Amino acid sequence: NTNTFNDTNVPFLNAQNQRGRSVMTSLQFHPFVSSVDTSFWHRLAELKLDKYKSSDAPIPIHGYYSSGSLHNLPPRLFLGRESFDEQMSPPPQHFSCPGTLLNTNTFNDFKKCDKGAMLQSTAAQIWEAMTNEEALSDPSLLFRFNLLTFADLKTYCFSYWFAFPALCLPALASLEERPMALPTSPLSHAAEHLAGMSQCVHLYDAACDAPLQPLTRLDEYLRRGCGDDAPLTIVIADPCPLPTHPAWPLRNVLALIARRWRLCHPGDQAASIPLRVICYRATEPEKSLYLSLRCPLFTSDDVPKAVGWEKNSKGKLLPRTVDLAEYMDPARLAETSVDLNLKLMRWRLLPSLDLERLKATRCLLLGAGTLGTYVARALMAWGVRTITLVDRGRVSFSNPVRQSLFCFEDCLEGGKYKAEAAAKELRRIFPGANTTAHRLTIPMPGHPVQAKDRDAIRADVSKLDELIQTHDVVYILTDTRESRWLPTMLAAHHGKLVMNAALGFDSFVVMRHGVFPRDDEPEPATPGAESPATATTTTTTTTTTTTTTTTT
Q: What is the distance, to the nearest Å, from the Cα of residue 291 to the centroid of all Cα atoms in its chain?
């Protein structure tokens, strides 16, 4: 929000009546404006997918605001990626305040959330901190905030609504004099020390060697009494640039003083006490304010009403929306959406599903026809990213109606090579896919190789052996039984998992070959590292295991 203020639009607060006498004017506060960096939303998306999942439990977060405001901007509460850190350190001349994030799972839950109850619940926490003195040692507890969100991670659109709860005093705080700029004096020099302190509220006592006193001494000063001749003076870091208005945090500081006065003077019938406030603005000290006012006192121990839901950019009490899709790489957005579907499945149905292991699995598909194209798409739908296709055939006119990765244009001019066309189409469907293609001839038992082709066949076999070694799972999806023999033997030799699938006119078969060694079994021996007898025994054992698995 980059709206700036125009001083000519600010009303003259110290109005006069017709006889020329000064009239007490109510003190007004400028509310916070949320300023959320895009890194906050990116971090929320990451945590939603990997940590929070389907939980809608409240999440502690942190925001921070500055002492003063540059470029005449409104008082802003900043949130970024670091807002989710358990221990967040705000930048220099900024002060942290705790918040609670409630991220709903559906937009309907977002709309139906009881926002009044949420605001009042946080107000009760602030009131409790005032009562049990926690707010005296940690004034940031006075500035708790709420953030209600719904994250649509498929479109990267976030709906959100901030609340900055402020406790309502029994009456409006009134100004005794017009707000004035802080004059150069020992008071202003003392206020300058606030910029280097971690707490945003202090008491001022000129009689002390260190004029800025901690808020923990508030009750001591209140018990001394606060008459017109010796009013209590507080110093607060103020993020508002207006010459006549303090920012939102002062509201709850006044409520704290009103609450602690009543606890220190339970039988006192006073309706208000005089107060002096220094609103220090470190970024532009010359704009700091000096306020003389009367602070109303609470008459009840009940939690007062709270206000504070943020208005949207049109000035209405409605949530805001930020659409980050246009700022994101479309390929990255597609990858996030694909992962989201799988994570939703894991959260709800298969908690043990290891999606990261699936994503890292390297799959080798031998055959890019009817089986190969459908298996490739199914693997991609399950989150597999690395798919290598092997086929030496070309796309014919009969293929596109049966094989999902080809179209009519792939058949023209003699037809494109199937492996290359399929790999390209997978990347077009999902840019996050890591697909490669190879044109290889697989030798088959009973099919002699002519002398002129032997060197090429040896090269193809060497490449096939290399591919099988560098992949985790081998899918054998070729047209004939004979073409499956060599890949099966190579995969068994290298201890790879094999999925062997075939289609008939009215039947099909799927077989799983190969098992990983159990913890109590020795690791497979390196070829050539042991005697021939031992090597034969190892090979026989592997073959027996494979056969048993296949039969089962």
A: 41
Closest among 231, 224, 46, 58 to 147, alpha carbons compared: 58
Residue 413, both tokens: 């001019």
Task: Say which residue the tokens 């070729």 belong to.
Answer: 478
DSSP 8-state symbol, 72: G
Residue 91 pLDDT: 85
End-to-end CA distance of the chain: 66
Strand partners for 292: 276
CA atoms of 139 and 120, how far apart (whole Å): 19
Are 362 and 339 a contacting pair, CB within 8 Å?
A: no
Q: What is the DSSP letter of 417?
A: B
- Which spans in 229-282 are helix H? 249-264
Beta strands 201-204; 232-237: pairing state: antiparallel
Q: In DSSP terms, which residues pair with 34 in a beta bridge? A: 77
Strands 434-438 and 386-390: parallel
Q: In this structure, what is the dihedral angle of CA atoms 415, 419, 420, 424, given to the nearest 10 degrees?
A: 110
Q: Which of 56, 299, 46, 283 lies closest to 171 in space, CA to CA? A: 299
- Helices assigned H by DSSP within 391-446: 418-429
Smallest CA-to-CA distance from 201 within 189, 185, 186, 212 is with 212
Q: Strands, DSSP E only, in 423-536?
A: 434-438, 473-476, 497-503, 508-513
Element spanning 116, H or E: helix 115-131
Q: Classify burial at 322, counting beta carbons within 10 Å of its beta carbon; exposed 0-12, middle 13-18, buried 19 or more.
A: middle
From 99, 76, 103, 102, select the one nearest 88 (Cα to Cα). Answer: 99
DSSP 50: I
How buried is 413 (Cβ within 10 angstroms: 0-12 exposed, 13-18 middle, 19+ buried)? exposed
Q: Which two tokens stand for residue 119?
A: 């605001």
pLDDT along the chain (552 residues), means of 10: 37 36 73 91 89 91 87 88 89 90 95 95 96 93 96 89 95 89 70 72 81 89 80 90 90 94 87 90 85 91 94 92 78 73 75 86 95 94 93 94 93 94 94 93 88 90 95 93 92 92 88 70 47 32 32 30
pTM of the model: 0.65
Instruction: Write out the two tokens for 234.
Output: 């507080």
Strands (DSSP E) found in 255-288: 272-280
